Amino acid sequence: MFFLLFFLSVTEVCDRPLVSSLPPSSFRSSSQLSTSHAPGFAKLNRRDGAGGWSPIISDRYQWLEVDLGERTKITAVATQGRYGSSDWLTSYLLMFSDTGHNWRQYRQEDSIGSFPGNSNADSVVHYKLQQPAIARFIRLIPLDWNPNGRIGLRLETYGCPYTSDVVSFDGGSSGLLYWLTSGLKRTSRDVVTLKFKALRNSGTLLQAEGQEGLSLSLELERGKLLLLLRKGRTSSTEPQRLVSLGSLLDDQHWHHVAVERRGSHLNLTVDKHTERVQIPAEFMQKMSCRYYLSLGAVQSEVSQKPVTSKKNFNGCLENLLYNGHNLIELAKNKKQQVTISGNVTFSCAEPVSVAVTFTGPESFLQLPGTTMSSSGGVSIGFQFRTWNKKGLLLSFELPQQGGVAWLYLSEARLQLQIHKSGASLNDGQWHSVELNSRQGRLTITVDKEERDSSQASPSFPVTVENGSQKCRNLFSVFQGCMRLFTVDNQNLDLIKVQEKQLGNYSNLQIDICGIIDRCSPSPCEHGGPCSQSWTVFHCNCSDSGYSGATCHSSVYEQSCEAYKHNGNTSGHFYIDVDGSGPIKPQLVYCNMTEENTWMVIQHNNTELTRLRPFTGVNQYSIHFDYSSEEEQLLAVIKQSEHCEQELSYHCKMSRLLNTPEGSPLSWWFGGPGAGRVQTYWGGAQPGSQQCACGLQGDCVDLQHYCNCDADRMEWTEDSGLLTHKESLPVRSLVLGDIQRPGSEAVYRVGPLQCHGDRNFWNAAFFDKETSYLHFPTFHGELSADISFLFKTMASSGVFLENLGIKDFIRIELSSSTQVVFSFDVGNGPLEVRVESSFPLNDNRWHRVRAERNVKEASLRLDELPVATQEAPADGHFHLQLNSQLFIGGTASRQKGFRGCIRSLQLNGVTLDLEERAKITPGVQPGCPGHCSSYGSLCQNHGRCVERANGFHCDCNLSAYTGVFCQTEVSASFKSGTSVSYTFKEPYEMSRNSSALPSSIYSDMTLRGENVSLSFRTNQSPALLLYVSSYYREYLAVLINKHGEENTSNLFISFFQIDQNAREDFNLTSDGEFNAIKSLVLGRVHESDDLDADLSRLASLGFTGCLSVVHFNTISPLKEALLRPNSSPVIITGPLAQSNCGSAASANSYSAENTHHLSDQSGSVGSGVPLVNSIRIDSALIGGTKLLYLCIFFTGLYL
Question: Is the pLDDT of residue 296 over 90?
Fold first, then answer.
């Protein structure tokens, strides 16, 4: 069945004066200065008596009360000072009540408690209530007044009569049963509205039951209202909770409930908060014909008698309407479709229980001591409710022992010095406590009426009190409410305490329980659990994927592109496509290549899958479940520049699409939801009913548009990429030609892959201080997050501004080193500042993230510490804006921003700066120049190259590869492996050059060598690198056996191995390495020019791993592995690329370790020249195996 909030159009003007015509007997006050200052003179614009009410003492314990005679709708209040005096209020609290007890404080925005008063004695301050109040009694409590006068007041309230029908239930057998199919017409939209006042914190308000015991009920459970779905009548059937709303609903005040059904959706509203849920289809079917509604006591359909249960509702209902029908009026008139059972009354009598509120550290209540009972003991009882985990509840004397007992909360447990009893007593519920002292033992009973009550009879130490017997608090203060005090089984009258006739008190609110549930509705977003104390709430964001005071801002980036620009390489990452929006984070694989950054989303079958003929099966259907949820998939596709998915079909006698003119034999579903039918294949265009070969005109049978449609006995395939984003992702395949004998097929649907982030690079350039972009008003009433990147050369300017009547929000560059986030939500302007130690006008990208919620505001700049500013505890918290949102400037066109703003997001929604900039003078779409900010990500001599949207690292001059030139290029060498890189021959250079002979070989003449490589091997000795010359000169890097020594005179150089200190050598030869011919890694086949020892070593080759080999600007190993067909390399023997050079592949327990050698020309060091005694120049480099650099020169120099 049914139900949301049903709004009636109100045409009645509800603003007539309510107080001016009342007799003096309708006024009461805490005290009066004299008979001429009596409360009856407190009427607006009247000069009777002393011109208004004034109490005998001006303090915060005074109050003025007005009895309107009946429950009335109150819409406004006006105040005025006492006529002809210096007495007026500057702020006050407003209370309402139906009975003159159990007052309820009126709050603006559920937070602001105080109202602004007057600034003189004569002017009238009128305040319209945001939500009308329904009450008979009004009480005004002064908070502040003219410091040069005293409390003085005249007032008026405005409103209109309020009519209602009321019914009450005793929580036992009383109830009403309505047959909703006999005379009460149902429509496609069902609405139920009511008000309730609960005297017990649990009970069923109403239940709608249909066929087979299927029911929907509204139940009060521990002060919260639940909407439950039951699928049977047995008590063992566990109900399904559809939604929970409200808290502290057992406060004996009226609460509004509305339930509306529209189709299969249902909205539940409690007071001002609404939740929407989906109703199960089976419920709608079984409630469509015959059902009934029970109120109060749950009714049995068979006997139509109430079922007595503690779950029955104890309290009152008011103005119960079903589709406009007044059900209480039907019950009053004893209509046929209504059955009344038990003690049902059509009035709302409620017991008077006076509560007191302990608001802070100075609050206490002192009551008269007990007298010795006949049994020689003490008996005390009370109820309390709180959110705090600790605080002193009670201290009392033990006359027989001559001591004092202290009862207090500690970690939400009740303790008496050394013993604890009860559990979770800081849950905001009422808990009863009874203490009985008899003959040296104390009995404590907690929640006696509850099934899980606790009782303890501990022995306890007696603390003897000396001196003053005043109330002393040795423990944390109690903040909460208490009521129903009894001493020796006698009720204590707290109204007498309020009137100073009994006991003493300080900083108490009497006849009101001022507890507030700051976690209902929860301010914590994205599922973060909310906890609270008396004054603050706390959100636990640890497992939510979000951060901040309310778990609002995502801790994850929104795309793989963003992770790349943080310096990350390929791997699995959580991405949150809408930032602080409702879409959950998802785990994806980011494949970061040199060209693009791919976001890869897997599904349940990305492998090649073989199909054989199925007997009796004409079609085979395959459904694909993705690792991401529906809304995540669609958001990824929408924000990406390009998406694709491989679709392959390998076939043998298994046709695919047949012909474009006929019905397809196979098809697939793609797009949002379950997808739409698609009759084209990978590589073709949507709607074409073709495969890629049909589009290209190269199918194996030109009469068909797919290779598989040729229906051949040989294996063939139709494969390609699906790139039409509106058709992605692939949801399912339907393959229809697999039933014939001999038919075989293999299919594959690859993962969804997308690259490019439209949001991340969306930018605009503001070239004038007066230029700006404007957008619709920003709506961030309760929570707002703003993030963007900027770069500028200006020292100040406003990034963003949005104004309201009084409220505003602004982010600006206030100086070259400071960003300021400022706003006003009605409590006065607040600012959050972040100061940078480096200039921000350096024409580099800087990131700003600002957030404002009901608890605090925060600002983060780049990776600097977050700056925060707490919001006032009881201040305004709705941000109310109404002007356009200005980007890059202000409404007054002052302090505009000059520079670039990029990736601007408000509450997870990206503003399209580029589209707006295309039609705005003074603003240009896009913003080039990213290498100044991201160029440092390119490693190992990689060169940053600008792109329109971003950058990429050119690794051509680096021995590394990868997105940031960070991936080592390694290969495993065998003894017969040889890689030879050939330089240009001399005659080619001379033939193409008109230069002098002496400069023919200048490009091949080296005055310094830069050599770097990594290696891992067990071989010793071994030749790592060999460079030869057309003039029989050579350079060799080799590993010698430990202990062997060979020295020579070398030219200036330095070497570094691994992380060892750099070693400098002063090489005395003054030669040049002329006309280099080739560079060889591994085995050297042409070794005639070498001496015998080196020739023997060269013929052995190298066994092990070589990685990132770099010789000047040449990377021979990289050329051989990645570009063997386009580079001047010759490869002989086995050569396999591997990751053997990476640190991850090195085993710390292995005999092999990877060593890194770098050789770069440098200035002359302090090394001692080495004396060469043979013709091969060599230098000892070091290590457990000795590494040598050998250089041989002939005597010929040009």
Answer: no
